[in-house]
Design goal:
It is built from 8 helices and 5 strands; from the N terminus they run βαβααβααβααβα. By secondary structure, the protein is α/β, with parallel strands linked by helices. α2 runs antiparallel to α3. About 40% of the residues are buried. Bound molecules: thymidine-5'-phosphate. The site of thymidine-5'-phosphate has 11 residues, from α4.
């Protein structure tokens, strides 16, 4: 095994099963004898979780798009510094529920912030820490919304219209098409067993590539 751990991110619109499948991925890696750290964004440390609260709550004043972008990256700067970078350096594998592809999809595709600005800030925040593999769980917006809707009251981002989530989903699909070496695209509209069979194959291939 390599000295530095691998960095796996899981992405997709709301309701595609990220949390469940992160548990599944972490279990698979642990069964292979690896040390695994799971995290989520925005969040992952006490301070970054407070920023998450600001991003998700229906506050008394609207959050400008630029503030939303910078808060996402502020939370990420803290999580990279306190969780992700030290874990990778210690040889642990990191599995993250969302990372900068979410910013490209939501703030870029959804809100319309130019990609080059996002990538510029990403370079500043985590130029040296980027995912080795990104599992994109893809499902039609209506399917995701239906599943997410059963979880309770929608947060500040979940109240967006269908068109917003269509742009988010399309941006994710464009990112995957542009970087097929890093992305594993999984049809998450199927039942969990089928989804996890595909995820298991992808993780198996990744583990094989590590030992050979
Ligand atoms: P979740 O953990 O339920 O997916 O909530 C995180 C929300 O924040 C979700 O609506 C996606 C959004 N988000 C962004 O808009 N940009 C980002 O960079 C990240 C990490 C999340």
């Amino acid at each position: 095994m390599s000295a530095r751990g691998r960095f796996i991110t899981v992405e997709g619109i709301e309701g595609v099963g990220k949390s469940t499948n992160i548990g599944f991925i972490a279990d698979r890696l642990r069964q292979a004898g690896l040390e695994v750290v799971t995290t989520r964004e925005p969040g992952g440390t006490p301070t970054a979780e407070r920023i998450r609260g600001i991003l998700k709550e229906h506050g008394e004043e609207p959050l400008p798009e630029t503030a939303e972008l910078l808060l996402m990256f502020a939370a990420r700067a803290i999580n990279v510094s306190h969780t992700i970078r030290p874990a990778l350096a210690s040889g642990a594998w990191v599995v993250a529920d969302r990372f900068t592809d979410a910013t490209r999809a939501y703030q870029g595709g959804g809100r319309g912030i130019p990609r080059r600005r996002i990538d510029e800030i990403a370079g500043l925040v985590h130029g040296d820490v980027n995912p080795d593999v990104t599992i994109l769980l893809d499902a039609p917006v209506a399917t995701g919304m239906q599943r997410a809707g059963s979880r309770g009251a929608p947060d500040r981002i979940e109240v967006e219209q269908t068109g917003f989530f269509e742009r988010v989903r399309n941006t994710y699909l464009e990112l995957a098409a542009a970087d097929p070496r890093r992305f594993v695209l999984i049809d998450a509209s199927r039942d969990l067993a089928a989804v996890q069979a595909d995820i298991g194959d992808a993780i198996g291939a990744l583990l094989d590539s590590e030992v050979h």
